[in-house]
Amino acid sequence: FILQFIHQTSEISDERIMETQQIVPNGEDEISEDIESRDKASIRTTHNVVFVTAEAAPYSKTGGLGDVCGSLPIALAARGHRVMVVSPRYSDGSPLDKKLANAVEIENRIKIFCFGGVHEVGFFHEYRAGVDWVFVDHPSYHRPGTPYGDTFGAFGDNQFRFTLLCHAACEAPLVLPLGGFTYGEKCLFLANDWHAGLVPVLLAAKYRPHGVFKDARSIIVIHNLAHQGVESAATYKNFGLPLEWYKTLEWVFPTWARTHALDPGEAVNILKSAIVTADRIVTVSQGYSWEITTPGGGYGLHDLLSSRKAVLTGITNGVDVDEWDPSSDEHIASPYSVHDLSGKAPLQKEVGLPIRPDCPLIGFIGRLDFQKGVDIILSSVPDLMQDDVQFVMLGSGEKQYEDWMRNLESNYKDKFCGWVGFNVPVSHKITAGCDILLMPSRFEPCGLNQLYAMKYGTVPVVHNTGGLRDTVKNFNPYANEGSGEGTGWAFSPLSNENLLGVSLHSPHHNVCLFTFDASCYFVLRIVWELHVYVLQALRLAVATYKEHKSSWEGLMKRGMERDSSWDNAATQYEQVIDWALLDPPYAA
C-alpha cells in the first residue's frame, strides 16, 4: 500500500520526461520507419494470433482491458491475420449471459494438471467479425460479480481460475478445429496482464522441452502494472510447472513490506515471470512504457523492465470508431461531424442544469478513486464554482467520493450535477454534450475517455502523464502562422519527493486527516499544488472557449480529425509481432 501511495504522489518534471523519452528504444518513430519500409515493399506476412485475456468486450468488460481485447483482434483480422481470442466463459444467470448466446459448445474437452489434481475444462466458440472467440468453461467462472470479485472483495481463488485460463489457452491452438482445422504450433500469443502471464512461462517450461511450440512466440501486453498476481511462495506448486522454473516466478518483498520480523517475504509474481520469459513486451502507450522503468512507476519491477528495455514498446490504444462516432451515435440527441458541428448541443437540459449556451460545461467520467485524481477535483470545485461554469460528473467508486458528489449537487444546484454509478448511454451524452473533459489522473497507462472526447469535439484538460501525455497535445495559438496547433491542455505540477506519510480521507467531512509528523505537510502541499494547476489549466481553457471562438473551433476539429482508429494501432502491433517472430525464442 505504501509503495502504491509513493508512486501515486510522485510526479516527474517535463524536462526530465522529454529528455528521457528521447532515448526510449522501439518507440513510435522506430515502428513508423519499419512500417513505412514494409508498406513500400507491398509485402505483408499474415500470422496466427492468439489473444489470452481475462475479459473481452462485449462479452465481459470492467475497463480498458476489455475494450482492447474486444477491438484489436477485429482490427488484426481485418488485416488478414487468423485471430483467436481466449477468455473465460463467465456466467451468473443474469440477462448479461445473453451476450454468449451465439457461442456453441465444442466437443473437445481437455484435462489440466495443476493445483494438485486434474481439472476438466470445456470450450465454447463463436465466429464473429472475422475472429474466433473461444470461451473456456469451468464451474469456477460461474458466479455473480465481476471477472475478479464481488461486493466482498477479490475472489480467493483467482490464482486458480486464471491458471486454468493460461493452460487452456495454450492447448486451444493445438486441439480446437476451428473452421475445420487447428491453428497449430506456429502461433503468436498476446498475453494480456497478469491473468494471462503464465502463458509465456508455460510455452518455455511445459511445451518447448518436448518440441512443441518451438516456432511460437509470446508478447506480454501490460495494461496496468499495479496488478501483478502476487501470492505466497507456497502456491508455486499449484501452477503445474517444473520445480527448476521457480526462480522465474520468485518474488521477495522488501524488508519494510513484510508482515513481521521473521517473515522472509517470499512470494511468486506471475506478471514478473511473463516479463522474464516473453519475447516482446508492449504497454498501452509510449509514455507508460517509459514510466514503468522508473522507481516511481515500476511497482518494484522497474529494474527488470529496464533490463529488457530493448524489447519494450509502447503502442497507444485505439477507439472503436463504430461505437464512438458522433455522426451515427444512437445515444445522443442529434448527430454531428467535423464538417458540421451544429448538432453538438449542450447537455444542460438533460441533466437538469439551467440552459445557458454561452456557459462552458465541464465533464468528468471515471472511477471515483485516488488514482483518477478525484480528491484534486474535490479541492478544486468550490473555487471553480465561483467562475461562470457548469460541471457534470459520472462515476462510482469510494463511498466518500460518491457522498461528496451528492453534497456538491445539493450545494450548487444550478452549477453542478453528479451521477453516481455508470451508464453507457449517459457516458456518451456527457462526452458529446460537454465542452471540456477533465482527467486529472495521477497515472494513466493509456486512458480512453480523452480519445472519446476528442472524437466528439470535446476538448480534454488532462494531467501530463502516461497515455494522456502521448495523446493530448498542448494548445499553441501562435503555431502554424497563427492558425494554432494542439488538441487540449496537459498540465504538469512540480516534481515531488517520495513520501512516507499516508493520507486518510474522512467519510463524514470533506477534509483530509493526516498522520506521520512533518511528511504530512508535503502531502498537503502536493494536493494544493495539483489543485492550483488544475484550476489554472481549466481557467485557461474556459477563457479560450469564451473569448477566442475561432481558436476553440480549431481545437475541436483537430481533435476530431486525429487518427485514433484501431487499424492504426493494429499496424504497429503487426510490426512488434514481426520483430518477435524474427528472433529465436527468448526463453527456450
From TrEMBL:
Pathway terms, separated by semicolons: Glycan biosynthesis; starch biosynthesis
Pfam families assigned: Glyco_transf_5, Glycos_transf_1
Q: Where is the Starch synthase catalytic domain?
A: 48-306
Domain Glycosyl transferase family residues, every copy: 355-476
What EC identifiers does the entry list?
Answer: 2.4.1.-
Q: Which InterPro entries match?
A: Glyco_trans_1 (IPR001296), GS/SS (IPR011835), Starch_synth_cat_dom (IPR013534)
Q: Where in the cell is it found?
A: Plastid, Chloroplast; Plastid, Amyloplast
Q: Which domain of life is it from?
A: Eukaryota
Catalytic activity entry: [(1->4)-alpha-D-glucosyl](n) + ADP-alpha-D-glucose = [(1->4)-alpha-D-glucosyl](n+1) + ADP + H(+)
Q: Which SUPFAM superfamilies match?
A: UDP-Glycosyltransferase/glycogen phosphorylase
Gene3D superfamilies named in the record: Glycogen Phosphorylase B
| Entry keywords, A to Z | Amyloplast, Chloroplast, Glycosyltransferase, Plastid, Starch biosynthesis, Transferase, Transit peptide
Q: Give the family from UniProt.
A: Belongs to the glycosyltransferase 1 family. Bacterial/plant glycogen synthase subfamily.
Identification of the protein by name: Starch synthase, chloroplastic/amyloplastic
| Source lineage | Eukaryota, Viridiplantae, Streptophyta, Embryophyta, Tracheophyta
